[in-house]
Design brief:
Helix content: 25-40%
Number of strands: 7
Radius of gyration: 15 Å
Largest sheet: 7 strands, mixed
Structural class: alpha+beta
Strand order of the largest sheet: 1-2-3-4-5-7-6
Number of helices: 7
Low-confidence stretches: none
Strand content: 15-25%
Length: 172
């Protein structure tokens, strides 16, 4: 069973350890910087909502949802000007599996599907994800979870491949 629990202060040491792992370092920023962003989230300075995802009650990774309109109105807009090209009512998702050994086993795809169902139940219709286009493993998993490249943004977003979830499960 897949479940999501909000990140709290007590999770920061665990997240610090995960962020330092090589398969995280490849696609995330410096662990101290990323941990600072997560601290901002849990302390309310950033509207992004961070979660630990669990499989059968065991912590297995991290997932967050960010709100496009809030990022468009923030300093992130200077670093990622393509944010202005996105619909204001959309949300974005980021995810990472804790352990390298669990990559390419379908876990990320299933977690993402479950999280999308959760977001749709909460009323979000436009759900995006923005992997590095060179992260082929992630792109493949996201496609399996129902995300498709936003055709008119290909080549316009730097090191991000913007993908939007296509509601193939009829979840609203």
């Amino acid at each position: 069973m897949i479940s999501f629990r909000p990140v709290s202060e007590k999770d920061l040491p665990l997240l610090s350890e995960w962020l330092a792992r090589p398969h995280w370092r490849e696609w995330w920023g410096a662990p101290e910087t990323e941990l600072g962003y997560i601290r901002d989230m849990i302390e309310g300075r950033d509207t992004t909502l961070p979660f630990i995802f669990q499989l059968d009650g065991t912590d297995r990774g991290y997932i967050q949802v960010w709100f496009v309109k809030d990022q468009q109105d923030s300093d992130w807009n200077r670093e990622y000007p393509w944010l202005e090209l996105l619909p204001r009512d959309a949300v974005g998702v980021d995810l990472s599996l804790a352990d390298r050994d669990e990559l390419s086993k379908g876990i990320g795809t299933e977690v993402l599907r479950a999280f999308v169902r959760k977001l749709r139940r909460e009323g979000y219709d436009r759900i995006l994800i923005d992997p590095d286009p060179e992260n082929l493993r992630a792109v493949k998993a996201y496609r399996k979870a129902g995300f498709r490249e936003i055709a008119d943004l290909i080549g316009r977003t730097g090191d991000c491949l913007l993908m939007e979830h296509q509601d193939t499960e009829g979840v609203s």
